[in-house]
């Protein structure tokens, strides 16, 4: 998903008419790296990645590890007017996602981070009605609302942006 987002930004978001992209949302991105393969991936997930990666690539392949030194610059993401990155605090990918957020924030000041405390990767798909899932859904709905609102409306206070 990140590769598609960066390719769209590289081609110019305004050139995608009639589609109007107003934001980028990453919910629990599945970033990994070769360095942590044995400690953070069980055998089933190692096999999944082996099947999904291009032949000869490792978990340091840029779409899987966008913070690796060999990965392309994240600067194309600056084309997005709003970016929201959501991560669960107990997700094994938490540290990588935080580093990714910090790198993206250097290019796009309108980048927000939403952390679900005490929860693991994709918990919201299994625990639909817990308070943390409801908080995630509320933040997601607000992000969509903000993306559909003009900057002038936000500045005038007609919409309160939550962070």
Automatic annotation (TrEMBL):
Alphabetical list of Pfam families matching this protein: Abhydrolase_3
Species annotation: Ceratopteris richardii
Domain of life where this protein originates: Eukaryota
Gene3D superfamilies associated with the record: alpha/beta hydrolase
Domain Alpha/beta hydrolase fold-3: 4-124
Alphabetized GO MF terms: hydrolase activity
InterPro entries: AB_hydrolase_3, AB_hydrolase_fold
Coiled coil start-end: none
Protein name stated in the entry: Alpha/beta hydrolase fold-3 domain-containing protein
């Amino acid at each position: 998903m990140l590769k598609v987002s960066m390719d769209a930004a590289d081609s110019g978001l305004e050139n995608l008419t009639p589609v109007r992209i107003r934001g980028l949302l990453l919910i629990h991105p599945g970033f990994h790296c070769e360095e942590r393969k044995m400690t953070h991936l069980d055998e089933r997930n190692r096999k999944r990645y082996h099947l999904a990666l291009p032949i000869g690539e490792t978990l340091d392949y840029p779409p899987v590890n966008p913070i690796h030194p060999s990965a392309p610059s994240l600067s194309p993401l600056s084309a997005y007017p709003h970016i929201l990155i959501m991560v669960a605090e107990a997700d094994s990918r938490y540290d990588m996602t935080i580093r990714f957020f910090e790198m993206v924030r250097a290019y796009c000041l309108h980048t927000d981070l939403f952390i679900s405390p005490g929860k693991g990767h994709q918990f919201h798909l299994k625990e639909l009605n817990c308070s943390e899932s409801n908080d995630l859904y509320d933040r997601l709905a607000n992000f969509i609302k903000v993306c559909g609102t003009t900057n002038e409306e936000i500045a005038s206070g007609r919409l309160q942006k939550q962070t």
